[in-house]
């Protein structure tokens, strides 16, 4: 009986196995993962990766597309041969598509196809590209540049490895491609890497990228030894200062004008030592529009928009904020110059930075250069937004009762329309010190405080200085 049952059991197993489809690993598709960026929708993501919204919904089992938000991880269908995580990378100074291809073990054609790029010449500093990153792969960094008369063997000795490994790292079959000034990639740590621009440079970072109207950018340069660093962004001369807590690291802070022309702008970086030029590098930076609204038309006294009066005042203001004090007085982020909190609505803005403006039926050719604070608490106090030295106090036609504070290194605050100024030129102030009383002087339609920040001669969004800590 037992034998009969055993035979029946084996027969059933054989029948089931004949009807069972053999499943191989490759039958289960592996999709790359993309993290949703700020402001993106499924429609935008589908267009970015040349797929459809329905396919993304089906692959991810999405029930409600409205719940997709920044930070959501999505499988992306239709990208044959691509796996891992799809990261958004802003091309930085000195980087090329060829470099990114080699450093991340990605065929150049894959990068071109994935990003819908027809030519590497379309890529500029600040261009956002998608890079597939796989776990387990070691990133490659520039270890050194090929010097004249260098051989493959010398490069291998420099890297303390086998010559054939060097060829493999650099995706080449022959040492003939390692010509002078060619960057040589190797599996080294990031802190051992150098920039392909010069062996004296370890890294150059511009943050944030791309450039955007109204933003404050920081250019950080790390070198292999002490150097004198200088440079320009468009027509602005950059002023570099040593980073106090990092050896051979320098930074410059630059504002981007709220009405700067979108497109490509010139960037230059120069390094020298004892008066001798070490490197001189030029590259184009991508600059884009900010997002600003239009204020309702404003009606003010005619003399406050008369160029014969306003231009001399503007020139005088620029002469104040063009001074470059080498000391850095501020620490950390700035504070709002009034009592209250944005979180509980006891600070309110009558107008925000960058708003396009029309005065007395003009075209919208003006912009708001700072933040306007209404009176939301039971006092009119004005406080220093950060430590600094008072550079100017006085009355102006447009700005009314005005105070300028020099925070050091080309950073200034301007506080306008004051009824009473409680500090004098040369006073040192700390963040939170009482410096004035809100009023309605100058070009105003009612009592308020106007606060603006200048970064190397350009008015920038003060909110960035409250929400971020600059070097």
From TrEMBL:
- Note whether Zinc-finger occurs among the keywords: no
Q: Quick check: keyword Signal in the entry? A: yes
N-terminal signal peptide: 1-25
Keyword line = Signal
- Note the PANTHER family from the entry: MUREIN HYDROLASE ACTIVATOR ENVC (PTHR21666:SF270), PEPTIDASE-RELATED (PTHR21666)
Please give the organism: Anaerolinea thermophila
Q: A Pfam family matched by this chain, by name?
A: LysM
InterPro entries on file: Cell_wall_metabolism_enzyme, Dup_hybrid_motif, LysM, LysM_dom_sf, M23ase_b-sheet_dom
Q: Which residues form the LysM domain?
A: 32-76, 87-131
Question: Entry's PROSITE patterns?
Answer: LYSM, PROKAR_LIPOPROTEIN
Q: Name one GO molecular function term.
A: metalloendopeptidase activity
**What is the protein named?**
Peptidase M23 family protein
């Amino acid at each position: 009986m037992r034998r009969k049952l055993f035979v029946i059991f084996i027969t059933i197993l054989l029948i089931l196995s004949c009807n069972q489809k053999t499943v191989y690993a490759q039958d289960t598709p592996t999709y790359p993962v993309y993290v949703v960026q700020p402001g993106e929708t499924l429609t935008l993501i589908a267009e970015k990766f040349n797929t459809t919204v329905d396919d993304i919904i089906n692959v991810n089992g999405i029930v409600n597309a409205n719940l997709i938000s920044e930070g959501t991880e999505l499988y992306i269908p239709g990208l044959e041969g691509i796996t891992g995580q799809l990261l958004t990378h802003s091309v930085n100074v000195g980087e090329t598509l060829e470099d990114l291809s080699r450093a991340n073990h990605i065929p150049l054609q894959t990068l071109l196809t994935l990003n819908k790029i027809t030519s590497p010449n379309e890529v500029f500093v600040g261009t956002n590209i998608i890079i597939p990153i796989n776990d387990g792969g070691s990133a490659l960094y520039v270890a050194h540049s090929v010097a004249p008369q260098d051989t493959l063997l010398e490069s291998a000795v420099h890297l303390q490895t086998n010559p054939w490994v060097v060829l493999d790292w650099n995706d080449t079959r022959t040492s003939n491609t390692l010509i002078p000034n060619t960057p040589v990639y190797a599996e080294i740590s990031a802190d051992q890497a150098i920039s392909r621009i010069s062996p004296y440079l370890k890294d150059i970072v511009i943050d944030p990228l791309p450039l955007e109207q109204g933003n404050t950018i920081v250019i950080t340069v790390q070198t292999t030894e002490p150097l004198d660093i200088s440079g320009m962004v468009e027509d602005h001369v950059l002023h570099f200062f040593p980073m106090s807590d990092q050896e051979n690291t320098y930074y410059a802070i630059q504002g981007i004008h709220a009405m700067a022309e979108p497109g490509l702008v010139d960037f230059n970086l120069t390094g020298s030592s004892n008066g001798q030029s070490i490197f001189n590098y030029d590259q184009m930076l991508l600059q884009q529009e900010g997002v600003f609204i239009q204020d309702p038309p404003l009606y003010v006294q005619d003399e406050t928009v008369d160029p014969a009066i306003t231009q001399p005042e503007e020139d005088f203001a620029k002469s104040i904020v063009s001074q470059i004090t080498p000391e850095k007085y501020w620490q950390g982020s700035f504070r709002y110059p009034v009592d209250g909190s944005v979180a509980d609505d006891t600070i309110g803005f009558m107008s925000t930075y960058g708003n396009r403006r029309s005065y007395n039926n003009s075209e919208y050719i003006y912009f708001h250069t700072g933040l306007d604070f209404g009176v939301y608490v039971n006092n009119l106090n004005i406080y220093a937004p950060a430590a600094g030295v008072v550079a100017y106090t006085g009355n102006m036609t447009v700005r009314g009762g005005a105070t300028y504070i020099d925070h050091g290194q080309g950073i200034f605050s301007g506080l306008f329309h004051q009824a009473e100024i409680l500090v004098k030129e040369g006073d040192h102030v700390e963040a939170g010190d009482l410096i004035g009383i809100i009023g309605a002087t100058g070009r105003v339609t009612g009592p308020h405080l106007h606060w603006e920040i200048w970064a190397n001669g350009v008015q920038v969004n003060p909110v960035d200085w409250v929400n971020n800590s600059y070097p």
